[in-house]
Amino acid sequence: MTDAVADDLDDPGEDARVCTPSDIAAQYQQHHEWLRRVANRFFDGKRPDLADEAMGVLFAHLLELVQERKVTDRGEGWPAYLRRAILNRCIDLVRSEKKTRERFPPGDPEEPRVIDHDPLGDYVAAEDLARRRQEKLNTAVENLTERQVMIVRHVLNGETNKQIGEELGVTGQGVGDQLRTIIKKCHEEVTKDE
After folding, report:
1. Which of 17, 65, 134, 136 could cysteine-pair with 190, CB 3.0–4.6 Å?
2. 92 in Cβ contact with 85 (< 8 Å)
3. Are 78 and 27 in contact (CB under 8 A)?
4. How far apart are the C-alpha atoms of 194 and 157, rounded to whole Å?
5. What is the C-alpha separation between 147 and 68, in angstroms, rounded?
6. CATH architecture of the domain with residue range 133-191
7. What is the 3-state secondary structure (H, E, C) of the chain?
8. pLDDT, one tens digit for every residue, the chain (194 residues)
9. Are 10 and 90 in contact (CB under 8 A)?
10. With the CA atoms of 17, 83, 4 and 101 taken in that order, what torsion angle do they form, in degrees rounded to the nearest 10?
C-alpha cells in the first residue's frame, strides 16, 4: 500500500462514521464498472486478468480494513480514493510480476518444474512387491481349513480367544495355538521366494 493511501486511512477526520461491509459492498456495486475501466486503461487493455485481480485485491483489502474498523465514511471522497487505490493495486501487481520474472527468467534452472519423486523406481518396486504378497496371501487363505477360516473370522469380529474357544468347544489356549499356526503358515507362504 502506498503512503498516499495510508495517509487517508490514518486520518479518518473528526466524528467520522466507521464503515461496515455493506458500505464497501455498496461502493463496489456503484463503482466496479468504472474501476475496471480504470484498471484496464492502466494495462492498455492487454491484461484484463490483472485488472480483475486488482479489483479483487482492492475490495478484499477494504473488507479487511473494515473488520479492523480502520475505514471511515468518505462521503463524496470515495471515487477519488477508489481510483487512487485501484491504480496502486495495479502498480503492486506489475511490480510483483516483474520480481517473479527476474527471479525465474526463461531457462532458469530454479524455475518450478515437475519433479519425479521416485527417480529410482522404489515406489513402483514396493507397489509390485505388495501386489505379489497380496496374491500369495490370498492363496494361503484359500488353503486354510474351514475351522481355521472360522477362527480368523471370529478374530476379525473382535472376539477374544476365550469367546472363540467357548463357541468352538476348545480352550482359549487351543485357539491361540491355532492362530499362531495360521499366522506362521500365511507368513511362510507370503515370504517364500523372497
Report:
1. 136
2. no
3. yes
4. 32
5. 71
6. Orthogonal Bundle (1.10)
7. CCHHHHHHHHCCCCCCCECCHHHHHHHHHHHHHHHHHHHHHHCCCCCHHHHHHHHHHHHHHHHHHHHCCCCECCHHHHHHHHHHHHHHHHHHHHHHHHHHHHHCCCCCCCCCCCCCCCCCCHHHHHHHHHHHHHHHHHHHHHCCCHHHHHHHHHHHCCCCHHHHHHHHCCCHHHHHHHHHHHHHHHHHHHHCCC
8. 444 444 444 444 555 567 777 777 777 788 888 888 888 888 888 888 888 888 888 888 888 887 887 777 766 677 888 888 888 888 888 888 887 776 666 665 555 555 555 556 677 777 888 888 888 888 888 888 888 888 888 888 889 999 999 988 999 899 999 999 988 988 888 888 77
9. no
10. 130
Q: How many CB atoms lie within 10 A of CB 27?
A: 20
The answer to whether the beta carbons of residues 44 and 105 sit under 8 Å apart is no
The residue count for the chain = 194
Which amino acid does the sequence have at 121?
G
What's the confidence (pLDDT) of residue 121?
64
In this structure, the number of other CB atoms found within 10 A of the CB of residue 134 comes to 11
In the chain, where are the structural domains located? 3-103, 133-191
Contact 39, 51 (CB under 8 A): yes
